Amino acid sequence: MRILAFIILIIPQLMWAQLFPNLGGQRVGISTAQFLKIGVGARSVGMGESYVAVADDIESLYWNPAGIALFDKNAVFFSHTQWVVDVKMEYVGAVYHINQSNSIGAAITYLHTEDMVETTELQPFGTGRMFSFGDFLLGLTYARNMTDQFSFGLSVKFMHETIADLTMRAVLFDLGTYYKTGWKSTRFAVSVSNFGNDMAPTGTSLNTNLNNEQTEITEYQ
Length: 221
What we know:
Blueprint lengths: L1 H21 L1 H4 L14 H5 L13 H4 L11 E8 L5 E10 L4 E11 L3 E2 L12 E2 L1 E13 L4 E14 L2 E15 L6 E10 L8 E4 L5 E4 L4
Antiparallel strand pairs: 1-2, 2-3, 3-6, 4-5, 6-7, 7-8, 8-9, 10-11
């Protein structure tokens, strides 16, 4: 009786262990554009990225677009981030003040890695193929001083992400406000970042089943 109960319990476990790898490509959740969570600028990152109400220099291109109207001089900003596992991110931004009230800016973000070995649940040591991964973002910003205490800004950003033969594109928006209360150095700021449309990959990828048969996947949800 004990042997029979053991067999009844163990056989389904073995079946599930073989089934999960075969269904792996279908059950994996994909999270895109994770590079947007990487902070830019030594000052802002050093402050724990609590920078929205402090952003009154060129780094505000990233944190709060309203902030580019709060300083007087035209400026250019470069940043290099050495991220984990040989991931690198480059950022360059520029701000031009049209007059005392209106300012414009542009920024480029580029995240890149070396080519990586492709692995799957069925081939954890590699499929024999290599793949690359990268993100590119171009942003254009406009900001205006409405009064000597209140300013607002808007950024339009075009994002392109590549994973192997798959690509994802999106248009994103940042909206920011900045208000100096007039009481000592108290400020109130709000920034809504990376608001945009849903993304789905396009392109062709290969799916390998338990029989080592490969099929092309061209439609994604």
